[in-house]
Amino acid sequence: MLKIDLHVHTIASGHAYNTILEYINQAKKNRMKIIGFSDHGPILDETVVSRIYFWELQRIPKIVDGIRILKGVEANINSRGGIDLLERDVKDLDYIMAGVHKGADFKERGVKKNTESVINAIKSGRINILSHPFKMSSYETDIAAVAEAACENNVLLEVNIAYLSDKWIKIHPEILTGLEKMIKIVKKHKQKVIVGSDAHSIWELGDDSPLKKIKKQVGLTDDMIINNYPKELFKLLKIK
Question: How many domains does the chain have?
Answer without folding.
Answer: 1
